[in-house]
Amino acid sequence: MSPPAKFAFFVIYAANRCLISKILLSTSWIPSSVTTLGNSSNGAVFDDCHSLRTIISLRATVPTAGDNNTFRQVPSDCMVYVPEGSVDAYRAAARWSDFGARIVNGLESPAYISAAPQQAIDALAGLKNTIAELEDEISDLKADKVALNTTIEGLEEEISDLEGEIDDLNDIVSAKDIEIAGLSHKNMYSFLQFQKIFSFLDNFF
Question: 2, 59, 134, 148: most buried by Cβ count inside 10 Å?
Fold first, then answer.
């Protein structure tokens, strides 16, 4: 990603060849891929940056400042904006510590927010991926719900059939109960008849 056109920007590894640009530089943007700012032997990056008022670093891990000339002649009012959560690390790092309290959370700077949207873009991309994954899960759950509803409907039909069979069996049992009751009554009548016969015979003999 390139920095906005409104910011003067120089190529860090060629800083020693850009003296005029360095003198006029007011705002510098350090990409998150930069790990070191060089030293006097290969061009101290911010040496002689007399007009520098803002340094915007996108790197959460503090880039190594090569030697004492890295920030030589940088104005005392230059602000350093760094990623959220990295302020203390920058303030404690060699050479960076010279900025002290002027190293602040980048989210406090409109310039940082406009110059460093890549972190937000990456976070947004991650959220979009998460949303896509959740949508896939929701789609799978909906499919599972349809399958479960189909299974439930099938089970309800089976339950209905079983309840019908139970009703039929209850009807059969009721019929058998009536039949048994009739047989019992008949047997009792026959038993009483036999008792009468035996009583008559006993009296006769």
Answer: 59
Helix (H, G, I), strand (E, B) or coil at 108: helix
Q: Which CATH number belongs to the domain containing residue 66 in this structure? A: 3.80.10.10
Domain assignment present for 125? no
Tell me the pTM: 0.47
Please say whether the beta carbons of 59 and 84 come within 8 A.
no
Report the C-alpha dihedral over residues 35, 38, 39, 44, rounded to 10 degrees.
-120
Rounded CA-CA distance 12/54 in Å is 15
- Model pLDDT for residues 110-127, shown as the tens digit of each residue: 666 555 555 556 656 667
| Whole-angstrom distance, CA of residue 111 vs CA of residue 113 | 5
Torsion of CA 49, 53, 58, 61, to 10 degrees: 70
